[in-house]
Queue: 2 jobs
Job 1
Amino acid sequence: MQLSEWVSGFDNRSPTHPFAWPLSIFHPPSSILYAPHVRWNKITIVGVGLLGGSLGLTIKRRRLADKVVGYVRRAASVAECEHVGAVDLATRDLCLAVKDADLIILCTPLTQMQPLVKQMLLAVKRGAIVTDVGSVKASVVKELETLVAKAGAHFIGSHPMAGAEKTGVSAARADLFVNSVCVTTPTKKSNQMAARKVEKFWQSVGARTLRLDAIAHDVLVSRSSHLPHVVAATLAGYVLKSEHPKAQAALCANGFRDTTRVASGSPEMWRDIAMANRRNLSSALTAFIADLKKVQRALANADVRTVTKFLETAKQRRDRWRGSATSPSPE
Amino acid sequence: MQLSEWVSGFDNRSPTHPFAWPLSIFHPPSSILYAPHVRWNKITIVGVGLLGGSLGLTIKRRRLADKVVGYVRRAASVAECEHVGAVDLATRDLCLAVKDADLIILCTPLTQMQPLVKQMLLAVKRGAIVTDVGSVKASVVKELETLVAKAGAHFIGSHPMAGAEKTGVSAARADLFVNSVCVTTPTKKSNQMAARKVEKFWQSVGARTLRLDAIAHDVLVSRSSHLPHVVAATLAGYVLKSEHPKAQAALCANGFRDTTRVASGSPEMWRDIAMANRRNLSSALTAFIADLKKVQRALANADVRTVTKFLETAKQRRDRWRGSATSPSPE
């Protein structure tokens, strides 16, 4: 599949912008942090953790909706959400939470999305828009598009590429989405107005939106996000295992800290991601292991030239990417 | 080999300190940022890049020496070093640089150390102390201990575990070593007074020192530092290769950024490290690849339980390490 088949809505208005390399595929140009927004009547956040909580904080701070309601599973979360100020109302009653909402955002781990949508279906308003923050899109879109259509509502898949290794609503930040990339994955069946409204929503919380085919999205993120997670977790698990001498942990410095940071993320969320995208992730692992073995072979052969080329190429590619990317936090 | 054979100079004065887990093996307790210092007459820094420049800035700011001289290779570096203020005098004359110095710190990539020491040997003062900042110790100690002894001077190996992906004296920072760990690797032949003075020096720039056997050090850092570097570089090289669609780079977010950060480090420095520690690094790669394959197998078998356990263990181990570690910069 070619990129041109994947990406719709090219925007070349700012070819000279510093973010010139991938800019052409984004709306809007990255110099606009917050897009002018549509005001929503009621937004419901289903699952108020790091992502849901951060969305709630942003929506409230930027007055994007008259009312923000959060659905939570645990009684303790109700008080916690209200304490953080992430929502106007937190409730364990799913149908009450989604009733009359114009926009419902699923912010739970992936496996909980379908059962929750089934439960809420009778309470969803006709014409409402349902979206999500799941890191895998093909399975989510397949499961939810038809289901949500049964309620006369519209499902548009989203993947805001923002997060942190911290978990829970207490780690929520109103600026989490600023300068992040949010992929949306409308299908041929999607209501175009709903797709545009979802894009506007992500732009209004500071993200740059990018439309991709859900299947293509899953291949790309298996490399850029899911593989790094598995690699970081394997590295942390291996280096810090108890069989190693006590001094091993003391010799883990900032390089190790950053290389493994994402391994401190939510195991529940990442289990769902790894399982939902396991075929693509496994392919990425195969290619990655083959590359590691090439480096190992060069080391075994004391092949300085290959080792040098390997390190130079990695630096060049990463520095080029860094030069073209924007990020909410400095390196 | 057991840890007790590796680590000398246990210090249990602060068993209740937050850094309690590996603290017992450090001098001094981490609450003391800067140790009281010996004042040196002249310190020479051989190679004034990120590490050498940061040392120069600290030495000057904390008045640890009457004079700090830097040896540089390129003419342009002389002006750059003086502009940054990293040394009192920068020169391309190695013998002039080391003449009368009490302490000579080798801050070049590993392969340059032996030839430079050979060149400077006639100019080194009897009784002077020579140390280094090399990330691999066994080969360095083996090469330099006897050589430096020929000048009636003392070589003590050091590995300050501080750095950044940025290179050159312009990236130097006076606080680079604060709260870092610095391993020293004196041998049975080492002059004990020289070994203690080198430890005092590192403590006076803010580091906590840890004595280890050079061979044991190399095994430990092959896992905690050299493996993460190879992994990060392989990941950056693989994900960002030009064969992937253009949108691939756009879908690299903060997780990718941090997991690959060290891959932007100096290829020259890391080539030398990888080559000098290639046997240990290759062993670490073998174990790491085996662990990756276990995860891949669990994914192939849709084995949710194993995938969950893998992610939970990695998080637990890393969070435990983070809880016990101190770091100069927040996560």
Job 2
Amino acid sequence: MNTIEVCFTPKLYSEIITKKNFIVVMVDILRASTSICAAFENGVAAIIPVATLEEAKAYKDKGYLVASEREGVVTGFADFGNSAFNFMTEAVRGKTIAYSTTNGTQAIELAKNAQAMVIGSFSNITFLSKWLIQQNSNVVILCAGWKNKFNLEDSIFSGALTERLLQSTDFKMDCDAAEAALDLWSIAKINPLEYIQKAAHRRRLKKLNLDDVLEFTFQMDTANVVPLLKNGVMIGEKDI
Amino acid sequence: MNTIEVCFTPKLYSEIITKKNFIVVMVDILRASTSICAAFENGVAAIIPVATLEEAKAYKDKGYLVASEREGVVTGFADFGNSAFNFMTEAVRGKTIAYSTTNGTQAIELAKNAQAMVIGSFSNITFLSKWLIQQNSNVVILCAGWKNKFNLEDSIFSGALTERLLQSTDFKMDCDAAEAALDLWSIAKINPLEYIQKAAHRRRLKKLNLDDVLEFTFQMDTANVVPLLKNGVMIGEKDI
């Protein structure tokens, strides 16, 4: 029996119970994980996650496309920021993009020594669930959160993914956080977009006029791909 | 307007938003905070929270009553362990007890520099809510959790207390964790005792035959007292 564990913020990652043979699903619903799924669905060749702005700048100098933001704002040297719509253009197709965000890429960095690290969002939830069930491994859902704090959008997605995995008899929940995420999702799923109106980060994005992508974020199954980190580079896994 | 913040584990305490003028409500439903409320309701004079077993042993050598457990098991030198029923006897009335537990006293240690530190449980929820509303201060609800992990029992209590505070127009929630706790409570409150059956720590206690006190734990308003930490010693505040 494989276990499902939910980690509500990167700061709690060192406390996870599962110590070996687990796949980490990194979740940063607003907005990195939604954007990464959109990118691969749109035919982006690869994404190089970088934690610091210095590294992002170095990739820019080497001629890469660079997507980079801090606290929702595009950094000066970057080609574009963190909206999924930026990753859905003709111009990025076939390209490799260096990508740095406030929360998402730090969480990726943290989990890169797991057996595998993949990206989850509402946009790839069905495809991802099927892929995870095929892997026959324990799953740790790692929420990027907001600056190490619990957030609602990543937590309800964790519940949604847990619900999907439990449809396979090979999975069981292994911590109270997974139970809580599932319960929060049972409330949120009636209307996720409306539920998330009360989330602090949703208000933060609204203030920055960055909530254009919100409706798209909560659309399910717009991407049939599992973004998978291999040797520091993310590629889009499309075979199941 | 005063804010309500919820901190799901001690490890996230350093991330709280509120930086000044806040009261910490420490919550360790299974079982320290329930036991402490029962003690003061029963007329215990004072409780000295100690983080380490060495300190607990030193108090024992000085002639104090000592309550002490690790992972649910009473430590060898202690007079008794962590069950609320231990604190409700004639023998402890009027006494000062040194008290050390797996999670609870560590959380107390962490928050002792707040404006005030008090203890919350279902047993004093009404009295505590009234007292907090009178204080006119920001509130941080600090869940002791289980070894730095999120747990359900402390989280649903946080939701229950948040619900009570929001009945006063002087309070608003200030983080996603408070919103989530309130939502979890909206599910759990139909039957908290049944809801908590799925909690990992409840299963842990059952395995140790330590779940005798479970029904008492979820009874509301058996204690009209606010345990309040002053200069390293906890006393029972009974005036509102």
